[in-house]
Specification:
Layout (H helix, E strand, L loop, with lengths): L5 E6 L19 E2 L2 E2 H11 L4 E6 L4 H7 L3 H9 L3 H7 L7 E6 L6 H6 L10 E5 L3 E4 L4 H12 L2 E7 L9 E9 L2 E9 L10 E10 L2 H7 L10 H10 L3 E5 L3 E4 L3 H12 L3 H13 L1
Parallel strand pairs: 1-4, 1-6, 4-5, 8-12
Antiparallel strand pairs: 2-3, 6-11, 7-13, 8-11, 9-10, 10-12
Helix pairs in contact: 3-4, 7-8
The protein binds uridine 5'-triphosphate.
Length: about 290
């Protein structure tokens, strides 16, 4: 299989749950303490040896491209002042990494966003998809883990984790075949099932490695009742071909598309810093 070297970042959503912040700031630029979600996602891709980043954007998301631009004037100033730590913070993306920005046109769903990357992916190529609002902490790059299984199995891969019953109806849920280590073949996938209809408690999270043929399935996928094209519906085509494996998430994930997940992610990262931890514990003890 050709080396997997491209990652698609769909950042064209409206982020309505984070209004009014998302009137002018893309959701993916909201920070965990001081680093935007999209930068964590890009770092995960680079750890997986990805060298081409494809952002699917909406009209108001120029700030994402600005975030990854070099800032020569500020860089020179910090150099003169010998502020090495600040210099490191300015370098958000090595210039050796190719970045491509493709407008989605209209926010017609995640599947529609991924479809916009078609011209960038060759016929025999697999590519990663990373949703920055699924924030993952852990020792390994989840994308690297998915690429490993995809390469070994010559199949598409998705990341899954066990989801509590009360939240199962917000997820795509898989019917797993027998697990071999951390992965399994997927027998079926159901978008947002009721608890009774859910084939397991393994929910799909925002990391995928997909083949070029996903674009054919996306083009055949009907819009849902909200006029959106869902990626999960197209992935069902890969399941029918026995071409999908699920990989258990090894890290800890926070759904930063929701207020609770975003707050917990910030708290989790803050608690790793001794000074912040002390302040938080003191505060919590007093509320
Ligand atoms: P969400 O389902 O979280 O939608 O998208 P959203 O619009 O960003 O947020 P809410 O629900 O209105 O608050 C999951 C991912 O898919 C991208 C989003 O940017 C996010 O990374 N997406 C979604 C697109 O790129 N285009 C779309 O049309 C929809």
């Amino acid at each position: 299989m050709k080396k997997i070297s491209k990652a698609v970042f769909p950042v064209g959503g409206m982020g309505t749950r984070f209004l009014p912040a998302t009137k002018s700031i893309p959701k993916e630029l909201l920070p965990i303490i001081d680093k935007p979600l999209i930068q964590y996602a890009v770092e995960e891709a680079i750890m997986a040896d990805i060298d081409t980043l494809i952002f699917i954007t909406s009209a108001s998301k120029h700030a994402i491209s600005d975030h990854f631009d070099p800032m020569p004037d500020l860089r020179e100033k910090f150099m003169r002042q010998n502020k090495i730590q600040l210099l490191e913070k300015l370098d958000t993306l090595p210039l050796s990494i190719t970045r491509v920005f493709i407008p989605q046109g209209q926010p017609l769903g995640l599947g529609h966003a991924v479809l916009q990357a078609e011209a960038m992916i060759e016929e025999d190529e697999y590519f990663a998809v990373i949703l920055a609002d699924d924030f993952i902490v852990g020792d390994n790059s989840t994308t690297a883990e998915l690429i490993q299984v995809a390469t070994d199995q010559r199949a598409a891969t998705i990341s899954v984790e066990q989801v509590p019953e009360k939240r199962i109806s917000s997820y795509g849920v898989i019917a797993p075949d027998t697990w071999t280590g951390n992965f399994c073949q997927v027998k079926s996938i159901v978008e947002k099932p009721s608890v009774a209809d859910a084939p397991s408690d393994f929910g799909v999270i925002g990391r995928y490695v997909l083949p070029h043929k996903i674009f054919d399935y996306l083009k055949q996928t009907q819009e849902d009742k909200n006029n959106e094209i869902q990626l999960t519906d197209a992935i069902q085509g890969l399941v029918d071909e026995n071409l999908l494996r699920a990989v258990k998430l090894s890290g800890q994930r926070f759904d930063c598309g929701s207020h609770a997940g975003f707050v917990l992610a910030n708290l989790h990262v803050a608690m790793q810093n001794e000074e912040l931890k002390e302040t938080i514990v003191e505060h919590v003890n007093n509320v």
